[in-house]
Design a protein that fits this description.
Elements lengths: L16 H18 L13 E6 L5 H12 L3 E6 L11 H9 L5 E6 L4 H8 L3 E7 L5 H15 L6 E5 L6 H12 L3 E5 L15 E2 L3 H7 L2 E4 L15 H8 L3 H5 L6 E3 L12 H4 L6 H20 L5
Parallel strand pairs: 1-2, 1-3, 3-4, 5-6, 5-8, 6-7, 8-9
Helix pairs in contact: 1-5, 1-11, 2-11, 5-6, 5-11
The structure holds phosphoric acid mono(formamide)ester.
The site of phosphoric acid mono(formamide)ester has 10 residues, from helix 2.
């Protein structure tokens, strides 16, 4: 099989294990390409991609843009903060105006869960979800799985704990769907106020004790506390949070085996992870960022190759 089962990448929930494996193996080829002296290939020549960011981003926006340029696509960038959205223009009007400029693919980050699906139903372009509120962040989960595979090989039967603000995290949900499809055992760990009640219905175990979670896992994915999405106080203080759920070097060094430490970024150093852990040899945070370009090249390439049904 050399094509995806979907026309858009809206979430990991909608794609199959075969889709994930195809994206990861295609990304492996692109990783080799971008490590050559000439990093550019003509695969998306004549394709125009619009990057629409209605929410802040550093890694995802730059990584998509670099992936598009490495594939020779024409790229236009849009940030809501300096656009006519500020004058009251709706999402569909904004996007239709951009599509009138003959855009083939749209990469969109938006604060509303379901925004990418909403768009996919209304406009004629391939849509890639670059994060929709607290719902999904599919390319982050794919680059995380790719980075884990580089460290551990086949992920089937491996154990991953996702630590922190699960309730507000699109990275957590996409990772859970992706890792489970690849046969990984997933636990979540954090204050019970930040763990949604439905999580066990996804087949995910809750481990409230950080030490026990870390002693169990092969990989710890440390998430940021998303204060910008928290309308009430979910824990007494950041100091208490970091004492109970922050990963520091003495804790890491005291574990019975060497685990892999991940973080999607942006990091709050000293809250969910200390600097010496983030910068340690067990941390693959910058590998995740590097792999994001190859994984996004794979997603763009595979979606561009499929005609709308
Ligand atoms: N990991 C991630 O989505 O980072 P940005 O918000 O900087 O894109």
């Amino acid at each position: 099989m050399s094509h995806l089962s979907v026309n858009h990448l809206l979430g990991i929930k909608q794609i199959t294990k075969q889709d994930i494996e195809l994206i990861l193996s295609t990304a492996q080829n692109f990783k080799e390409v971008i490590n050559r002296p000439i990093k550019k290939v003509p695969s998306l020549r004549d394709i125009t991609v619009a990057n629409l960011f209605f929410e802040n981003s550093t890694r995802t926006r730059l990584s998509f843009e670099l992936a598009q340029k490495r594939l020779s696509a024409d790229v236009i960038n849009f940030s809501a903060s300096n656009s006519s959205v500020k004058k009251g223009e709706t999402l569909v009007d904004t996007v239709n105006n951009i599509l009138a400029m003959k855009v083939d693919m749209v990469v969109m980050r938006h604060a509303s869960p379901g925004a990418a699906l909403f768009l996919a139903k209304r406009v004629k372009a391939k849509i890639i979800n670059a994060g929709d509120g607290a719902h999904e962040h599919p390319t982050q989960a794919l680059l995380d799985a790719f980075s884990m595979q580089e460290q551990l090989g086949d992920l089937k039967g491996k154990k991953v704990v996702i630590v922190g603000d699960i309730l507000h995290s699109r990275v957590a949900l996409s990772n859970i769907f992706c890792l489970q499809k690849l046969g990984v055992k997933v636990k979540v760990c954090g204050p019970l106020t930040l763990i949604p009640r439905y999580i066990t219905s996804l087949g995910v175990e809750v481990e409230p004790n950080l030490r026990k979670a870390l002693e169990w896992c092969d990989v710890a994915n440390m998430l940021r506390i998303q204060l910008e999405r928290q309308d009430i106080k979910y824990f007494p203080s950041l100091r208490e949070y970091s004492m109970l759920y922050g990963l520091d070097k003495p804790m890491l060094d005291s574990l019975p085996k060497k685990i892999v430490v991940m973080h999607p970024g942006p990091i709050n150093r000293g809250v969910e992870i200390t600097s010496d852990v983030a910068d340690s040899s067990q941390s693959i945070i910058l590998d995740q960022v590097e792999n994001g370009v190859a994984v996004r090249m794979a997603v763009l390439f595979l979606l561009a190759g499929r005609q709308n049904d």
